[in-house]
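User: Please predict structures.

Assistant: First:
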Amino acid sequence: MTQCLDFTVAIPTYNGESRLPELLERLRNQLYTEQLSWEIIVVDNNSTDNTARVVQAYQENWQCPYPLKYCFEPQQGAAYARKRAVEEAKGRLIGFLDDDNYPVLDWVVKAYDFGQNYPHAGAYGSQIHPEWEVEPPENFQRIAPFLAITERGDLPLQYEMKKKLLPPSAGLVVRRQAWLESVPNQPILTGRVSGKMLTGEDLEMLSYIQKTGWQIWYVPDMEIYHKIPRWRLQREYLIPFFRGIGLSRYVTRMVNITPLARPIAFLAYMINDLRKIVLHVLKYRRKVNNDLVTACEMQLLLSSLISPFYLWKNGYFKIDKKSSLNSTS
């Protein structure tokens, strides 16, 4: 019988050789975990750099009572990496950290304690502070949450399904039982890969967990710092990034809507998207093209409008028979 642990830290990474050392050092120095049984798993998502060698070097000198493990996931995409992490994990709770997420020194124990105190929480997200390489534009706070920056105050908050708001996967803890009960074996959205910016795989996963009755929470005591390099604030990155978010939205919008209601919801979303586009143009006029933040918002609105047509045309609805969203496209 496989031994169950209290907690697993899972690190999906792609070409993370330069970012992993700081994260592994933060995890090696976690405080107040003496009474916990836990582990760290690095999931190498088809890296082409020296990620494997970096982890191996740490393993050779690892003096901690909790193990540092490595596994290779050849199918590229964050959804595949997280699925592999769940398969490999022995922890009842699985905390996901991206390789540019740096937790404070009591993150593990805070994450474990919340899971113990809130047994109906299927997933819960951290308070995420930005660590900018360069300062963003003044109006960047309008789109900052899309870069996994989550500062929602100092009290725990439950995400309500009707508000259609969910935490990012950075610093997210998932109860393994909730994942196994809720998440389809083959999701529609698999995450960004080279040449394709379609995202939303984390929101699809969380939508399924919420749909089956598990609670989703924001936990401010679980603090991490998200290092954001200068290139992630440039137009060349941000416009395709927001296009990818928008193009995935039909999937995440429809998970919690019954099949019979989806045609009505489809029309309602289209009308609302058109309304938002018109209001955005009227409000910002020339800034729609000239101002980076306004252009990103416009790209998100336009891509959300065409999302169902894009997904249908590119065959995404043929991938996942379990979720059956293809019947409403």
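Second:
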Amino acid sequence: MARRVVVTGMGLVTPVGNSVAATWDALIAGTSGVALITKFDASKFPVRFAAEVKNFNPGEYMDRKEVKRSDIYAQYAVVAAKMAMTDAGLGKAGEGGLDPDRIGVIIGSGIGGLKSFEEQHDVYRELGPSKISPFFIPIFISDIAAGIVSMNFNAKGPNYATVSACATSAHAIGDAFRTIQYGDADVMITGGAEAAVTPMAIGGFANMKALSERNDSPSTASRPFDATRDGFVMGEGAGIVILEELEHAIARGATIYGEIVGYGATGDAYHLTAPAPDGEGAQRAMKRAMRDAKLEPKDVQYINAHGTSTPANDLNETRAIKAVFGDAAKNINVSSTKSATGHMLGAAGAVEFVICTLVVDNGIIPPTINYEHPDPELDLNFTPNIAVKRNVTAAISNSFGFGGHNACLAVRRYKP
């Protein structure tokens, strides 16, 4: 029998709050984290807004040298990991009885240190190759956040990064879940981080027409499932969870927020950026997660949708949910918290898994904000604009990425 895995710690750095509590309160209140870009001069760009992390001070959690030698995406990851470990009541392995070999780290990033890449490329172009920082490569690479976090906590178990675009951190959590189930670790620090509000990322996504162009109304630009949706809004931040083998958590008296019970991953094998028709790959991912969790359609009360606010995703995800859940779909609350946070790319899946866990733990469902114009083709309950109180015993989180990567995670209220 597979070992049971529970959530005992959570940490968030998001465009609507630099902690779990602040993010949760903002989501329930329907607060948007989207505004005009402040990180660079976007005046010449077709898209001039994003969901930026605000008032972030890594120095509260990291020493000056560590901050200087890390990209902001890794700083987000380290800060969220420290929050999560504190929340879990865990410290450095080797102290307090935690075996370093039994704690691992899987933290992904879709793009990694893009800001540092852009800065160092400018240095190269302006000053020549001799001026490229010797720290450039370890600052830039997508796995370094996992490495830094492992060093912070002396975590010597399985350690790597996932990279699968917008499914990145859902895959990280799913892999961490399996790692504990298989007995290769007792505790996993897992999730994802992203910091892609940069000129190249905004310019690239804008030029492929993936981003909303509502420059006159940034706070209402992310509008998943709305008939007037016109693209996603770039977000950034990090989500980290502490997954723990159940008996290990019980033995140390840990707080248990929920139990991760299912993971499904599939590939579309269809198109570089477009989802498969009717969300065929997404359907299979949800079915795998449900089967893994031993959940029937009637058992799920909430779905945190991938819900990007793009015409193609929202249509195909709606069709996928209806295909998987059948008649039960109309009884499920669906919401996309990307309406508030923007699309955090490689961090999105982890942040949204945390949200699902909070929904199960608190019995409140955050809304899809900016939902003003129902689309007749999208006829599910998208929990429009106002949070809803509901007894939720099981929830699933969907994450889909360019390249046809699909991941689905299922979390259930913990029952001894």
